[in-house]
Amino acid sequence: MSVDPCLKLVEDSAQRKPWSEVERWIGTSLERLGLHARTPHDRIVVAVKKEIADLVARTRTALAPLAVDETSGRAVEHAGELLSRGAADERFPREELRAMTVGGNGYGTTPEAVRQELGAWIARHQALERRLTWLLDPRITREQLPSLDPIADSDQIWCSVRFEFRPEVLYALWGNAMERIAQVEAAATFFHGTGKAEGISLKRTEDTVLFYAYLFNWGQDSYHGRTAIRRMNQIHGRYFAHNDGLKYVLLNGGFTVLDGFPMIAHRPLTDTERLGYFHATVEMGKAMNIQNLSHSWDEMYGWFHDLNRATAAPSPHKIRMWNGIEDGFDHDLKVPKLISNFRKLAERASMDDTYLSALGFERPSPSQIAFVRGVMKTVAKVRELLPSEPYIQSLQNYTCYPNGGAVETIGEKERSARMPSACPFATSGVPKPNKGYPENQLPLVSLSEAAEIDLATLTWEEVIKHNKADDLWLVWHGHVYDLSSFASNHPGGLKVLLGGVGRDMSKAFDKAKHTELTKVFALNFRIGKIEAGDPPRRAARGSEEATKEQATIA
Fold first, then answer.
1. Number of H helices, E strands in the chain
2. For residue 444, what are the β-bridge partners?
3. Are strands 457-458 and 526-530 parallel, antiparallel or unpaired?
4. What is the DSSP letter of 288?
5. DSSP labels for 138-181?
6. Per-residue confidence at 197, pLDDT binned at 50, 70, 90?
7. pLDDT tens digit string along 325-357?
């Protein structure tokens, strides 16, 4: 029985020379610091077998509609038999299918449409084999880099950057990207409301890393890549999300990382590395249905930093959010204080001016920045002493996933329990875990795109009962909003919210000049319509007295 060429590559990669004692000591030391990790061989085998099985199944599905007459029917049937035997042997029958596409194959005439379809799937299998060459030996990309295309080869370049600059990304740049939501108060407030920022900061970060890695390791057309995109869109689609909010978070994962390299990296990025990383990020955003993205560096970089300049003013809310996420990292990573302090120094050293300004931080001194860069250079030299071996980021161990994170199960399973559940998509036929929130919503470019919601009508008497920081309902523009999950973290302060109990807050809401981003995020907290008429005067006065008492306590 022949072995699939892709699995043959995997097996060959495992037959490398054993480490020497010195290499073992270096590798173990770096592993303890999170700077080196061997990809478990058995996981690579399982992942490649999934890709092969997916190719076999999709080829069979693609061929089925081509059986339109007796000749094409025989060809499709024969190809199906080859695919069935291949599936049983855990291989893609590339050469047998190729024989069907050329003359004198001993089978007979294969119609042109079938030949073309077979050729397309054979090419996909060859592409998987090529991809595995650089996944199994990441240093190959160094040699290929001058000839790589920043757009066509963006997956390979993204993975190479993450390998070559692992210490910089791990100890500073990716943390900066995850924590930068603090700079945009609307996004920060939303994340605080879900509890997915400070509450599970490390898990959220590792989930994001894994989704990225599955997509860029295996490609958008792969089983793992398609599953990663489907899961990300499912998670995001449970909320009303403004397109610009998702666009900012996406580009933040690109530009905040790329902007940090010149400040602390052990060597400069090449133009190909910089552009490839950027184009990979844009391609992922398009797969996530984010609108108004382009492959123009200048356009996207300008948009991203225009928003950063507009949100560069410091505020207690921003630093509170940033510290909350940072404390979550420290708590879950359980690293020595020395390592934690170095990570925080490296993060500040690699922040741009608007990021530092928004948090009220001073830039570290030149000697501190030189120290950080010196550590990165030393680690890079030490890593070079180890022999090249597979580094497939999607298949590594993580703190929250010590046995690896399967693409089918990573990420949040349900909409946050801290969020209100009322939603137009909640029907009696929806299974309980999904009842009360939307599914598969696209990002909203404007508030006008939001679906009309048939919400229950609530009375002022019912609304006024919810008048505390952890149980707070407010009314504006005819709707009732449950702000309980973030009231204490409201950028304008808790007092202003408590002052709105039992009142129509429409004028106050408009006066605050909330952005379109905030208005869309607010839809996630809308739970009903308010009854017609003004609020009862007596109840309003009573609520004001309660507000003063609550404000004093707060």
1. 25, 5
2. 242
3. parallel
4. T
5. TTHHHHHGGG--TTTTHHHHHHHHHHHTHHHIIIIIHHHHHHGG
6. confident
7. 998 888 888 888 999 999 999 999 999 999 999
Whether 415 contacts 238, CB under 8 Å: yes
| 104: alpha, beta or left? (left if phi > 0; alpha if psi -120 to 50) | left
Residues near 292 by beta carbon (within 8 Å), at least 6 away in sequence:
243, 247, 445
User: Residue 228, Cβ neighbours under 10 Å: how many?
Assistant: 28
The residues of the chain that CATH labels 3.10.120.10 are 454-553
- Give the C-alpha separation, 158 to 414, whole Å: 30
In CATH, the architecture of 454-553 is Roll (3.10)
Nearest-5° Cα angle at 279, 264 to 405: 75
Tokens for 5, please give them.
């060429």
427 pLDDT band (50/70/90 cuts)? very low
**Structural tokens at position 93:** 């029958």
Give the containing element (helix H, strand E) for 471. Answer: strand 471-476
d(CA 86, CA 94): 9
Separation between Cα atoms, residue 171 and residue 368, nearest integer Å: 15
Residue type at 229 in one-letter notation: I
Of residues 164, 166, 193, 191, the one with CA closest to residue 180: 191
User: pTM for this one?
Assistant: 0.90
Please tell me the distance from the alpha carbon of residue 405 to that of residue 208, in angstroms, as a whole number: 11
Token pair 């030149």: residue: 366
Contact 482, 527 (CB under 8 A): yes
Q: Note the pLDDT of residue 514.
A: 86
Q: What angle do CA 29, 30, 36 make, to 5 degrees?
A: 140
Q: Which amino acid is at 241?
A: A
Percent of the chain as helix, strand, coil, to the nearest 5? 60, 5, 35
Grade residue 105 by pLDDT with cuts at 50, 70 and 90: low
Query: Which of 135, 148, 124 lies closest to 279, judged by CA?
Result: 148
Contact 366, 273 (CB under 8 A): no
The b-or-e profile of 93-122 (16+ CB within 10 A means b, else e) is bbebbebbbeeeeeeeebbeebbebbeebb
Positive or negative torsion for Cα 147, 153, 157, 159 = negative
Q: How far is CA 173 from CA 215, 351, 470, in A?
A: 20, 9, 35
**What residues does 474 pair with on adjacent strands?**
481
Using CA atoms, how far apart are residues 535 and 504, in angstroms rounded to an integer?
7
Q: Write the pLDDT tens digit of every residue in 212-243.
A: 999 999 999 999 999 999 999 999 988 888 99
Strand order in the sheet with 457-458: 457-458, 526-530, 479-482, 471-476, 467-468
Q: Tell how strand 457-458 and strand 467-468 pair up.
A: unpaired
For the beta carbon of residue 302, count every other beta carbon within 10 angstroms: 11
Q: What percent of the chain has pLDDT over 70?
A: 92
pLDDT, tens digit, for every residue of 153-185? 999 999 999 999 999 999 999 999 999 999 998
* CA 246 – CA 202 distance, rounded (Å): 20
Task: Enumerate long-range contacts of 503-508, CB under 8 Å, 24 or more apart.
Answer: 503/475, 503/535, 503/540, 503/543, 504/475, 504/476, 504/530, 504/534, 504/535, 505/474, 505/475, 505/476, 506/476, 506/477, 508/476
| Distance from C-alpha of 86 to C-alpha of 340, rounded to nearest angstrom | 51
Vertex 46 angle, CA 44 and 51, to 5°: 95
